[in-house]
Write a structure and sequence with these properties.
alpha+beta, five-stranded antiparallel β-sheet, Cysteine dioxygenase, RmlC_Cupin_sf, RmlC-like_jellyroll
């Protein structure tokens, strides 16, 4: 039997791990939804609420490479549109609310890139949101604070800073575009 809900989550992911499939995403989403039901009295979760760290690594799998992070975000914190390179990510709201916008990337015949916003979703405590490779989104904390679990199938710092595969978009006169456009 697992010691706590965090260990149950990790054991569950390890037992299901494999190539990206609809089933793997569904399994990881379900396991994250279970993790969101953890008792606030569990030591690891109580510490997250007490410390309110903007970025804390909860687990990094040495064999499979997936990472579970916890982020405490403050009201109005905005993360502009970006993708996750080759990686896929599941956000799980433990506390608070975050608005997540989804975008499509449009490339004009002259090569100029712009984003078109598809929709916006308010992700509340107990809910999860999945982003697959190539998906583009932004986030904005809508409550005084929010505690978000971010499960990534690979280390996104490597994907971003070392391999330069993450695309971040910039606002140019009201149009989201790449730095290169």
């Amino acid at each position: 039997m697992s010691a706590n809900s965090l260990q149950s989550f990790l054991d569950g992911v390890k037992s299901k791990w494999g190539p990206l499939t609809s089933e793997l995403v569904a399994d990881c989403r379900d396991l994250l939804e279970d993790l969101l039901e953890a008792s606030p009295s569990e030591e690891w979760l109580a510490a997250l609420h007490a410390n309110r760290s903007p970025n804390e690594e909860l687990y990094r799998d040495p064999e499979h490479g997936f990472v579970l992070l916890a982020h405490t975000e403050q009201a109005g914190l905005y993360r502009p549109p970006h993708d996750h390179g080759r990686g896929w990510v599941i956000y799980a709201m433990q506390q608070g609310e975050i608005e997540m916008g989804a975008y499509g990337r449009i490339e004009a015949p002259d090569g100029e890139v712009r984003l078109v916003k598809r929709n916006s979703t308010l992700v509340r405590a107990g809910q999860v949101q999945v982003y697959l490779p190539g998906d583009i989104h932004d986030t904005r904390c809508m409550t005084s604070s929010a505690l978000v679990f971010r499960f990534t199938e690979r280390d996104l710092r490597v994907e971003d800073r070392q391999e330069h595969r993450v695309t971040r978009y910039v606002d140019r006169e009201g149009v989201w575009t790449t730095d290169r456009s």
